Amino acid sequence: MAGPPHSAPGTHAWPGAAQARPVSAAETADLLRGTRGTVLPVGAGTKTGWAAPPASCDLVLHTGGLARVTEYLPGDLVVVAEAGVPLGSLRQLLAEHGQMLALDPPEAGATLGGIVSANASGPRRLRYGTVRDLLIGVTVVLADGTVARAGGKVVKNVAGYDLGKLYTGAHGALGVVVSTTWRLHPLPPARATVTLPVDDSEHAGRCAARLARSTLTPTAAELRWDGAGAGGELAVLFESTAASVRAQARDAVTLLGGGSTGEEPPRWFGRRPEGETVLRLAYAPSALPRVLDALDALPGGPARGTASACTGVAYAAVPPGTDLAALRAALAPYDGSAVVLGGPLTGAGSAPARTAAEHWGPTGDSFPLMTRVKDRFDPERRLSPGRLLGGL
Amino acid sequence: MTDARIDLLARRLRDRVGAAHVLTDPAQLRTYACDGLATVRVQPAVAVLAADRDAVVTTVRLCAEAGVPFVARGSGTGLSGGAVPVADGVLIVLSRLRRILAVEPDDARVEVEPGVVNLWVTREAAPHGQAYAPDPSSQQVCSIGGNVAENAGGAHCLKYGFTVNHVTGAEVVLPDGEVVHLGGTAPEHPGLDLLGAFVGSEGTLGVATRVTLRTVPAPETVRTLLLGYRTVEAAAGTVSDVIAAGIVPAAVEMMDALAIEAAEAAVRCGYPEGAAAVLVVELDGPAAEVAEQFAQVLRLAEARGAFETRVARDTAERDLIWKGRKSAFAAVGRISPAYYVQDGVIPRTRLPEILTEIGRLADGAGIRVANVFHAGDGNLHPLILFDDAVPGAEQAAEDLGFAILDLCVDAGGSITGEHGVGVEKKAKMARQFTADDLDTMHRLRCAFDPAGLANPGKLFPTPRLCGERPGVRTADDPGRDPALGEVF
């Protein structure tokens, strides 16, 4: 399949689709008003596989032209940046002022709009939360060309509905995110990492529980899981003043009953596991050992992965042919879910593309309400059709 | 709306939720005519004192069948009139739903009914070394249901975030009586984040009947500092210096001379005499970090000429410092017959200039304004003093409050940081947002509540109906029963 010249192969290639690259909210609005077909908004295309394949795509709308940092107020710890700005370049700008946007998804080149739309996060979610905790304002263009803002430029603001929450993780299905406003944090001056080998799932659970119940304030606690019998490694990251990270690392070693202290986290830290089928699992935080057991018990062989240990989120590369429905059933007692990350947008050869049910899992009792929300925001179902839970 | 329709609904409610829980006697209903915004009073036609979750579901269903609007009310401490009843509607009182359903320290979760008081959550979590972070000043009485509706904040949200950052799940009765479960115990769920949109929707999207809250570990160390300044600018400058130094305090609160005078008269908190402004700065976290940053804050404060730096040596001293701040609203009752509190937000760096401008507006209007604010996040609470015995004084106070909100919006801020829009500030929504912004918000309202029955007349500047076709809004309907859309 021949992709358009400026699309990375296999990421958002769609046969026969037109391509557009607006450079402003107004131009994005004109585009949507001026066409009637289905639209697939994409940023850098690093996470297009994180939602189900679209039911159709007449136009690929690239947000890379929306590339300006429009406002940066270091004294207010707030930045406004267009959707196509890569997180990496924003990070550099903020670092010059000793600040950061405390989001660390590992996908290289990822844009702010894509990170919002896919709700991507990384290890530091333990301390700073995720997109929903840091995004304080958003501008979207709706399917009918309406340009609408929600939130604002101040962190504390309860005026009106917080639509930023709604667009987070919506994969562009309610509107095209064109601008984002963020709460920033100071860059911590020092770091220390405590690593220790983890024997089995119970040991992992014990370490996570001790950390979660302690007064230590790690910014991340990542577990690398090598699968049944092989155990894994826990890396606890402290970022604060020099004296504090030293003291906390020392206390963590005592608390966890061992571990070695260094400055930088291990090389695997923050990376997604690699494999044909990678899942994002979410579950009640205390269920970590049960989730690891479920991964170990997969019929095709154990999964490898990483877990953000105290948060209730893990990423796993599962063996080919894994029965996702069975895995989801095993996670259900812990309010668990398993969502596919990755995979082609269209079927390859004779293989059909995965369905929304395969991708996301079962719908809950709020699905009719989600459908009504979709129908109000995009009544003609033009935006990212079929990409969301339940094929919305 | 006809009385017969309300009578029929009241009869059905008595049958289904029990006569003892259904009030229609005007004398009894008077108690529920207003919330913390006492200037707006509307007596509901019916009040249901729900005994349990099922009573809430039944009441909403019966209202939906009858096409009668309803308003949910928790403790009634809200300051924007979010729980003001609708005259021809039903008020659903949730204060009896006060069970703690689960305490799960290993998941850092507490599940509660909506009538549970904010402080009780921390009380439940404390034996496990945890706390519920959002701490509105009314935390001893305000309910979690109300906190969720208003996305309540508090002094410590500078570091810890707001209610929305601490709610992981909710059971919600939608305005048509359907019950849905949003979120849960896990940190995320496939599909749209409807929970995130529901929190802070001011009761216009449904009624939460169960809420799962996230608790946080109680910090190892808490240190509290009271700083006195000769000028407001020096105090505001210290706040900027602290932030610029890369410190995120748990709280930074500021009070001006008039607010200090009131607090002193009311609770004898011992704030420094002659101060033009005081700051309350609190740091919490690991001992080493707090010690280092605390010393830094002291140095920065002294560099800005703080003439008094008082460090709380124990819990009693800490409580006294906070007492002055937390009682400030009520305290102005000591220096004025009446007051009106506003809740605007500005970018923090513009604090000195906006305060000067507020002073100018107040002088121009001949009105005294005591300023209390969450300085760390630029959330202003001007307390506008007036004498309610003087004709027109209340209106003048309100006008000044609204002029201050205009300043906030023009500075790039917001008309509300934590009190909500309610009935009080709905007209100002059109100052902060465009018609397209508001139309887009209204789409969400229509998805949840196409009949417009849940807390109508709040949040949106003009009453409006949902279009027949999804996504299409009809024009405002002047023939609509005004009681459905407007409460004042």
TrEMBL record, chain A:
The keyword Flavoprotein applies. Residues 1-26 are annotated as: Disordered. PROSITE patterns: FAD_PCMH. It comes from the Bacteria. Keywords: FAD, Flavoprotein. Gene3D superfamilies: 3.30.465.10. One of its GO terms (molecular function) is catalytic activity. Pfam families: FAD_binding_4 (PF01565). The keyword Flavoprotein applies. Residues 7-187 form the FAD-binding PCMH-type domain. This is Glycolate oxidase FAD binding subunit. It comes from Actinacidiphila rubida.
From TrEMBL, chain B:
Keywords: FAD, Flavoprotein, Oxidoreductase. It comes from the Bacteria. It comes from Actinacidiphila rubida. This is Glycolate oxidase. GO terms for molecular function: FAD binding; oxidoreductase activity. The lineage of its organism: Bacteria, Bacillati, Actinomycetota, Actinomycetes, Kitasatosporales. Residues 465-488 are annotated as: Disordered. PROSITE patterns: FAD_PCMH. The keyword Kinase does not apply. Its cofactor is FAD. Residues 40-218 form the FAD-binding PCMH-type domain.
